[in-house]
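REQUEST FORM: STRUCTURE PREDICTION
Request ID: SP-0412
Submitted by: Lab K.M.
Chain count: 1
Length (residues): 282
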Amino acid sequence: MKSKNKESQKLKALVREKYSEIAVRSEKGESAGCCGPAGCCEPGTGGKTGDGIYFDIMAESYEGLEGYQPDADLSLGCGIPIEFAGLKPGQSVLDLGSGAGNDIFVARSIVGETGRLTGLDFSEAMTRKARTNAQKMGYGNVDFIAGDIEDMPLESARFDVVLSNCVLNLVPDKQRAFSEIFRVLKPGGHFSISDIVLEGTIPEPIRKAAEAYVGCVSGAMQKEEYLEIVCSSGFTDVTVRKQREIVIPQDWLVQLLGEEQASILKEHPFRVLSITLNGEKG
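STATUS: Completed
RESULT:
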C-alpha cells in the first residue's frame, strides 16, 4: 500500500510539473498541446522536433462554439463534454482539470450570469492563467481554484453538473475521483466527461514511459473497468454518448520507445479511445 501511494504521489507530481510547464509556455506564446515525451512543438511538423512531440491528435475543435476564447484553449482535451452536458441557465457547474478555462467559458455562455461556475485544476500555474482570462472578460460568476480531484476542497452537494475533458485518465485513483464527483453533485445532478480509455492491453514499454502518462495514454485504463468504476460509485444511467479511436502516430512511438520496442508493439494491438459519457446522481 505504501509503495502504491508513493507511486501515486510521484505521478501526481509529474502531472503537476508538466501541465504547469504547458501553462508557462502558453504565456510566452509557445505551442501548448497535450505533450508527449519531452514537451511541445509546432503542429503540422509530423510530431518530430528536437524539443519533443506535439500530441494534438486527441483534441477536438471548439471554434464556432458560443463563449469560445482562443486564449483559454490549449488543445489539451479529447472531446467536447459540453455537447452532452444538458446545461441550463442558472446552473452551478464544476469543471475538473479546468486548465486555462476553455470549458468553463463555453459553459458560461449557456448557464449565463445567474449561473455559478468553478474550475478545479491541480496546477497553480494553470489556475492563475484561467483567472487572468476570466478577469480580461469581466466574468464575476466564475472561480478557479487549485486542488486535487481525489480530495476536492469543495463542499458536498454543491453542483448541478460536473464537466471534465481528458483529465481523469491522469488521476491515479479513479475510484476515489468518481466518488468525489458523486459527493459534490447535488441529488439529481449529473456529469458529462470526455476521457481516454483502452481496448486491449497496453504494452508495458508505454506503461513505463512516464512522459506518455502525461501525454494522455498510459494513465488510461480498460474501457470496461472504467465504466465499472463509474457505476460502482453510485451513478445511474451511465451512457457513452460518443466514441472515437485515437490513432497514435508510429513516429511518436519510435521517438518514445526506440525502433525495436516500437516494432514489438505491432504484435500486441490495442486501441486508444476517446469517449464522452454521462451519469446521474439519483
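NOTES: Residues 33-55 have pLDDT under 50 and may be disordered.
Reviewed by: T.R.
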